[in-house]
Amino acid sequence: MKSRDGRFLEEDDIIEAMTDDIALIILPTVLYRSGQILDMKRLTAEAHKRGIVIGFDGCHSIGAIPHSFSEWDVDFAYWCNYKHLNGGPGGVGGLYVNRKHFGTMPGLAGWFGSKKDKQFDMEHTLTPAESAGAYQIGTPHVLSCAPLIGSLDIFIEAGIENIREKSLKINQYLMDLVEFELKDMGFFIGTPREDIRRGGHVSLEHKEAARICKALKENGVIPDFRAPNIIRLAPVALYTSYAEVWEVVQILKKIMSEKQYEKYKNEREVVA
Amino acid sequence: MVSEYTLDHAKQMDENDTLKGFREEFYLKQDSIYMDGNSLGLLSKRAERTLLESLEDWKEHGIDGWTQGNHPWFFMAEKLGAKMSQLVGASAEEVIVTGSTTVNLHQLVATFYKPEGMRTKILADELTFPTDIYALQSQLRTHGYDPKPISSA
Questions:
Q1: CATH for the A11-158 domain, from 3.40.50.300, 3.40.50.150, 1.10.10.60, 3.40.640.10
Q2: Do A93 and B100 touch (CB under 8 A)?
Q3: Could you tell me if A188 lies within 8 Å of chain B, comparing CB atoms?
Q4: Which terminus of chain B, N or C, has less C-beta within 10 A?
Q5: Distance, CA of A53 to CA of B142 (rounded, Å)
Q6: Rama region for A259: left / alpha / beta (φ>0; ψ in -120 to 50; rest)
């Protein structure tokens, strides 16, 4: 299914594409470039009206925004835990399966999907767990799970609603500053402006994006670049200060007015 | 309002930030501003501690670390899933910490994609992250279909 402008998806277009030859829908919760949030509640209801199963990729929303997967009746979701959840590089991911599907045999079975008290019976017939645990496959990557234990405590303590509130405010502040300080410098804010439609980062589009990112790094700011023309900036509720956001925009302004980016090639690094 | 865009105003907002205390829990670099937490979040002291405790469990308990120690390994995925469930609005049994994004997508498609009669297609969007598309295309191939690139779908 196509985007009208290369940035955003229209829920109406997605619903129109839910034709009777569709068996399954997979969509992101938050788009990784623009940071747009899809209306998961509406899309799930529309999919179910048509008898279609729907699952979401939550990589860019977990830990940044609250979700109501059960209430929305989402069928399943999956995500990584090393972005907003700070679980560490290559850390173990997560998945959600709606309880109405418990008992559905895992497509990819393995012994860690067993009911816990049966696992060591060593039988050759799998007795799956009566929970999302049934969809585990192999032995857990224990040391890559371990940082999450401490990290999740921070999220529970801070409260996801409070995190979302600051995230919206500090991202709004970044966008306001960009509009105020960087006008007429060729930037375009490629993130939805309404709170309800934006996730936890701001996407700045610029034709010199790759080399502006290199200049930012040279100036002590760590952004990321997404080809062909996006600088993603994520003020994080738990550890980014408003003063830092202010400083980032001042640095950007200096890079642009002094044309510092011209020192570099407008190409991405191996890992962008 | 122009007067709002001063460093002092930014500092004032930091002062009023109810989450400001958490910042000290993270390893931030002195001369650097990290704006990439949506790609790789930073290490917190608590995350470091539970990782070191888990290494300690291995050191102290060997095989018995599966059921003993600070964070018994046999129940870790379930316990983490239960904790995480409130972040996604689910009940404890509906969430598990396992795999990676791509592996979990493969698992869920292998479990819930059941083509029948005319209903054979998977709907995805052209802006999604490439790994999702690679996984979906390979799942379609294992069912004997020849998926078209998304741009021409």
A1: 3.40.640.10
A2: yes
A3: no
A4: N
A5: 19
A6: left
> Mind telling me how many Å the CA of B31 is from chain A's nearest CA?
6
Q: Is B62 on the interface with A (CB under 8 A)?
A: no
* In chain B, domain spans: 45-94, 101-152
Q: For residues A55 and A81, what is the distance between their CA atoms, to the nearest angstrom?
A: 18
CB of B110 within 8 Å of any CB in chain A?
A: yes
Number of A/B CB contacts below 8 angstroms equals 393
pLDDT of residue B3: 64
Instruction: Please compute, for residue A169, the number of CA atoms within 13 A of its CA located in the half-sphere on the CB side.
Output: 18
Residue B86: list chain A partners with CB under 8 A. 156, 160
pLDDT one-digit tens code per residue, A225-254: 998 999 999 999 999 999 999 999 999 999
Q: Which tens digits make up the pLDDT trace of B96-110?
A: 999 999 999 999 999
- pLDDT, residue A268, reads 78
Nearest beta carbon to residue B98 from set A53, A105, A140: A140
Sign (positive/negative) of CA torsion B20, B23, B25, B31?
A: negative
Residue B97 contacts A where some CB pair is shorter than 8 Å: yes
Q: What is the percentage of chain A residues whose pLDDT exceeds 70?
A: 100
CATH topology of domain A160-258: Aspartate Aminotransferase, domain 1 (3.90.1150)
Residue B136 contacts A, CB cutoff 8 Å: yes
